[in-house]
């Protein structure tokens, strides 16, 4: 599962309420619309809004759970979807409450409905109102959760950038070597503050060789090397490196 900024329990709990309410409202609307169409009655606008709210909610929930599992759910996208669903549920619940207030206020018994079919319809209307209210409230809560997660995500990004900008850096110490390097980086020995070239400094690439004092160097060589003059140690020429042939080597032995 892809990482998510949503709190797992609240996120899935609200989505469960949305899904359950949408499925039940959609099932009740399908039942009513089928009977109205079968008896050649027109479908009320309240039923059309309720059906649209339930079907769009189911489609949006399936789409967003796929994104949540595989690539992560963007809070901005979910704000747009839940905002649209909140408008549908608000209109649907408002129309249902306005037109069915008389039916919802009565008790589902034979004194008011006179037959079993009427009692069943009364109970279905009350179940429809209950789950429409649940869908409306859960969608508003999901929209509020999206806004909260989006603000937290933005706040974390601002804090992270602020920490990067205000992070303390160690101050660089300047010296003759850093000044010389800076002068050469600014363009072949040009000083940083102007265009005056310092001819007294040589390029670092042509720095004078620094010989090491080996075990065969004599005191005079060491003194010359310490004075800054490079010379080959004279002790290296005291060894006999000539070739005299095999018979001379045997005679010497």
Report the total helices: 9
- Which structural class is indicated by helix and strand composition? mainly alpha
Ranges where pLDDT stays below 50 over 5 or more residues in a row are 161-165, 189-207, 247-253
Calculate the terminal CA-CA distance, rounded to whole Å.
87 Å
| Overall average residue pLDDT | 75
Secondary structure: helix percent: 55-70%
How would a crystallographer describe the biggest sheet?
none
SSE string, helix = H, strand = E?
A: HHHHHHHHH
Number of strands: 0
Radius of gyration: 45 Å
Roughly what fraction of the amino acids lie in strands? under 5%
Q: What coarse outline follows from CA principal-axis ratios?
A: elongated
Keywords: Membrane, Transmembrane, Transmembrane helix
Transmembrane segments: 12-34, 46-67, 79-100, 127-149
Protein name: MARVEL domain-containing protein
Organism: Friedmanniomyces endolithicus
Write the layout of secondary structure elements.
Layout: H1 8-38, H2 45-70, H3 75-99, H4 101-105, H5 110-113, H6 116-165, H7 176-185, H8 219-227, H9 246-252
Helix pairs in contact: 1-2, 1-6, 2-3, 3-6
């Amino acid at each position: 599962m892809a990482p998510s900024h949503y709190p797992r329990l609240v996120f899935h709990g609200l989505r469960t309420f949305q899904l359950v309410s949408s499925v039940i409202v959609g099932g009740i609307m399908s039942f009513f619309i089928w009977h109205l169409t079968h008896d050649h009655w027109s479908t009320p606008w309240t039923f059309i809004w309720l059906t649209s709210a339930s079907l769009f909610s189911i489609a949006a929930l399936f789409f967003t759970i796929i994104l949540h599992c595989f690539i992560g759910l963007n809070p901005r996208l979910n704000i747009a979807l839940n905002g649209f669903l909140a408008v549908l549920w608000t209109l649907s619940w408002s129309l249902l409450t306005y037109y069915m207030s008389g039916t919802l206020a009565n008790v589902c018994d034979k004194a008011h409905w006179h037959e079993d079919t009427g009692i069943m319809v009364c109970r279905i209307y009350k179940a429809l109102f209950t789950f429409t209210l649940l869908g409306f409230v859960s969608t508003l809560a999901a929209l509020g959760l999206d806004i909260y997660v989006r603000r937290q995500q933005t706040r974390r990004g601002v804090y992270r950038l602020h920490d990067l900008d205000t992070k303390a850096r160690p101050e660089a110490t300047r010296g003759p070597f850093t000044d010389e390097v800076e002068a050469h980086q600014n363009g072949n020995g040009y000083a940083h503050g102007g265009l005056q070239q310092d001819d007294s400094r040589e390029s670092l690439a042509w720095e004078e060789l620094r010989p090491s004092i080996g075990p065969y160097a004599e005191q005079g060589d060491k003194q010359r090397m310490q004075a800054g003059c490079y010379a080959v140690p004279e002790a290296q020429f005291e060894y006999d490196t000539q070739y005299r042939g095999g018979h001379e080597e045997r005679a010497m032995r």
